[in-house]
Amino acid sequence: MLSGKRVLLIVGGGIAACKTPELARLIRKAGGHVRVILTKAGAEFVTPLTLASLTGEKVHDALFSLTDEIEMGHIELSRSADLVVVAPATADLMAKAAHGLANDLASTALLATDKPVLMAPAMNVRMWLNPATRRNIATLRDDGISFIGPDEGEMACGEYGPGRMAEPAAILATIEAHFVREVAPKPLAGKHVLITAGPTHEPIDPVRYIANRSSGKQGYALAEAARDSGARVTLVSGPVTLPAPAGIRTIRVETAREMDEAVEQALPADIAIFAAAVADWRVADESAEKRKKDGNAIPPLQLTENPDILARISRHGSKRPCLVVGFAAETGKVLEHAKAKFARKGCDLLVANDVSPASGVMGGDRNRVHLVSPEGVESLPEMGKGEVATALIARFAERLARPA
Ligand code: CTP
Question: Do 150 and 113 form a contact (C-beta atoms < 8 A)?
Fold first, then answer.
């Protein structure tokens, strides 16, 4: 799988460094070459000799090494790889990378590289959850760095939670997936894809809101599939717990009106996919103060209609994207409702799915969708949301390429 691929493995200082000889062995077994940069702290947990024996290469550990600079300068080291893997990515290494520090060989290589970077974080659970680490991860994701893990479980320090480095086999699978994606066709190269995802929250007062059960998973998977097809992607996301996907411009909003505004700002786009579960109504008389129980009278909620973003963009004059795709989340008579919605919304394609509680789609990882087009309905088999996204994006790309 990794035949001829060159991986630069940066080993940080943590107990998980003990797993890196196994990772190096697996990469080599899969046909890849491994060069290692070992930090000073990493060398406390794994010896240069072990890594050199397993990789068949000299292990690099010093920024100012005369021999190393003559044999292979640190800049060249960071660029001669096809992929840079940081395992374990410690809180310290991530903080340095997020802020562009370069005071040792590992951080200098990360700053100097022009190659994709995959990090496998490992640290104590409190360090992982610390706001400083959260900020650094968000920055690194925005910079296009990918992550695997950490896993949740018992830690070497005795605490329990997220922070264990992903297992070497899982890191290898991610490395392989990276190279598979790299050679995959890029039918959306040069195209801008705009996607809405997740629910919207419509405030009742400063502490309460109206929401729905959308997790955003299908919309985020579509954004990743569009990115992997070569598109520049803008993801306008309602409140979800998912992290911003690497290499995707993610704009976080709360309400339908904010989503509408963010969509407008993101135009022009070649394809617009409206996967968000936008609240149809908002509270007309949103209270600036928390509503209080007032004697026995139950306060009525006066609702007013939200802008229909999909319908508006479908009828947008000059800025209408070439392909506008709507979604229909239904709990019964799925195809009947979907066909009516397709006719009503003015979009080019509509993806319908059954979100009744028995389907497990809302919040779940699998989905079964029906693609409604002017030619009829194509029903796809039940698949993981990632596979559904790949299948849908391939169809959208094919449609975009069709002569008008
Ligand atoms: N949508 C939108 N803006 C809204 C409501 C919906 O952009 N204010 C989009 C959704 O993102 C989805 C499609 O319209 O792509 C269908 O959403 P849905 O809520 O199922 O449709 P409704 O118009 O609300 O129809 P109904 O109430 O009959 O289900």
Answer: no
- Low-confidence residues in the chain, pLDDT < 50: none
Mean pLDDT for all residues in the chain: 93
Whether the CB of 193 sits within 6 Å of ligand 1: no
**pTM value?**
0.73
- 43/29 Cα distance (integer angstroms): 24
Contacts of 336 by beta carbon, 8 Å cutoff, 6+ apart = none
Which pLDDT does position 66 carry in this prediction? 63
b or e along 154-168 (b: 16 or more beta carbons within 10 Å of the residue's beta carbon)? ebeeeeeeebbbbbb
Rg (CA), the chain: 24
Q: Is residue 157 annotated as a catalytic residue, yes or no?
A: yes
pLDDT (tens digit per residue) in 258-286: 999 999 999 999 999 999 999 999 999 89
pLDDT digits (tens, 9 = 90+) for 302-312: 999 999 999 99
Q: List pLDDT tens digits, range 313-356.
A: 999 988 999 999 999 999 999 999 999 999 999 999 999 999 88
- The whole-angstrom separation of Cα 31 and Cα 383 is 31
Give the angle 257-222-220 at the CA atoms, nearest 5°: 60
Residue 183's contacts (CB-CB under 8 Å, 6 or more residues apart) are none
User: Which atom of ligand 1 approaches the CA of 326 most closely?
Assistant: 15
347 Cβ closer than 6 Å to some ligand 1 atom: no
The secondary structure of residue 69, as a DSSP letter, is H
For 251, the token pair is: 């704009």
Dist. CA 183–CA 175, nearest whole Å = 13
Cα–Cα distance for residue pair 322/314, rounded to 1 Å: 10
Mutate to test the pocket of ligand 1, among 253, 306, 310, 315 (most ligand atoms within 8 A of CB): 310
Q: Which residues of 336-366 are buried (b: 16+ CB within 10 A; e: fewer)?
A: eebbebbeebbbbbbbbbbbeeebebbeeee
Q: How many residues does the chain have?
A: 404
Distance of alpha carbon 243 from alpha carbon 246, whole angstroms: 9
